């Protein structure tokens, strides 16, 4: 347990050193962690990233190949390792595609965004490079990742008259006979594309946006229901969605909002906004349907949705229990504490209708299962 904590500490030190532009300190931290655990792909990837900034490209290649050996089926670390190898081979477009694939699976890796910014700047996409750099700085709490990447002159797009006759091709490495792929001509995004880029960038700056919207809708729905402005019509199937945002008592509303503020934000950050919305709505519907089956009526859909969020968080810890190491055990215990507290409080205020517990159990199990199904690909290695 202590060794796992030491490894996590060294890994965090290495990440922080890279973000602050100190690859030498990062290399030292990763080297210490490698002495404790030599078969961890995260450690070898960190060594590759640090030595890339130091200019030790031979070490980078060996470390990246070691990562791929440890992850033969592919994964997050293997994808970044291949991107670094492509960068050294001057296959910038291929490296950019690899980094984009990693970011699409886990958008919370600051180094991946910094590497993407570097590759975009090489290929002449300055606008997108600045967005990626800002995202990396936000995720690393102000890190600039200076001195972490080799100095490469930006590629100059070919002139229009020569573009059709002969594409731009990087020089061929005659030593190993491997030909380099051509670099497609980059064109600036049109007005609508630039608007979408700005919209995605603004969304990324508000990690709790969906949770804040759910909180606001729940407060408005409760006040409307409590004041008699909102009348529930269970004959309309759309009301099942509306009930997901309604609490039956002020105390229950406060407990659910408290849970959303702390746990909902975490789940939104771990799974992303769209997965978070699906988990919230689906868990609430599962609880309502089970409640109707056992009671013949409908309870607080908001409580069921919140329990589904708890289940999703537990599913995340279950999927990542190996990679989280010592931190995973503490996080899982915290999850059990929050979930148990909510179950006890809801049973205490159930007013004798303990059959609501079936809906709570169904929603938390449903949220866990949905989280496992919706988790990014590299998080589905359960065993």
TrEMBL record:
<feature type="transmembrane region" description="Helical">
    <location>
        <begin position="331"/>
        <end position="350"/>
    </location>
</feature>
<feature type="transmembrane region" description="Helical">
    <location>
        <begin position="276"/>
        <end position="295"/>
    </location>
</feature>
<keyword id="KW-0472">Membrane</keyword>
<dbReference type="InterPro" id="IPR035952">
    <property type="entry name" value="Rhomboid-like_sf"/>
</dbReference>
<keyword id="KW-1133">Transmembrane helix</keyword>
<dbReference type="InterPro" id="IPR011990">
    <property type="entry name" value="TPR-like_helical_dom_sf"/>
</dbReference>
<feature type="transmembrane region" description="Helical">
    <location>
        <begin position="206"/>
        <end position="227"/>
    </location>
</feature>
<dbReference type="GO" id="GO:0004252">
    <property type="term" value="F:serine-type endopeptidase activity"/>
</dbReference>
<keyword id="KW-0812">Transmembrane</keyword>
<dbReference type="InterPro" id="IPR022764">
    <property type="entry name" value="Peptidase_S54_rhomboid_dom"/>
</dbReference>
<feature type="transmembrane region" description="Helical">
    <location>
        <begin position="301"/>
        <end position="319"/>
    </location>
</feature>
<feature type="transmembrane region" description="Helical">
    <location>
        <begin position="239"/>
        <end position="264"/>
    </location>
</feature>
<protein>
    <submittedName>
        <fullName>Rhomboid family protein</fullName>
    </submittedName>
</protein>
<dbReference type="Pfam" id="PF01694">
    <property type="entry name" value="Rhomboid"/>
</dbReference>
<feature type="transmembrane region" description="Helical">
    <location>
        <begin position="356"/>
        <end position="375"/>
    </location>
</feature>
<dbReference type="GO" id="GO:0016020">
    <property type="term" value="C:membrane"/>
</dbReference>
<feature type="domain" description="Peptidase S54 rhomboid">
    <location>
        <begin position="242"/>
        <end position="370"/>
    </location>
</feature>
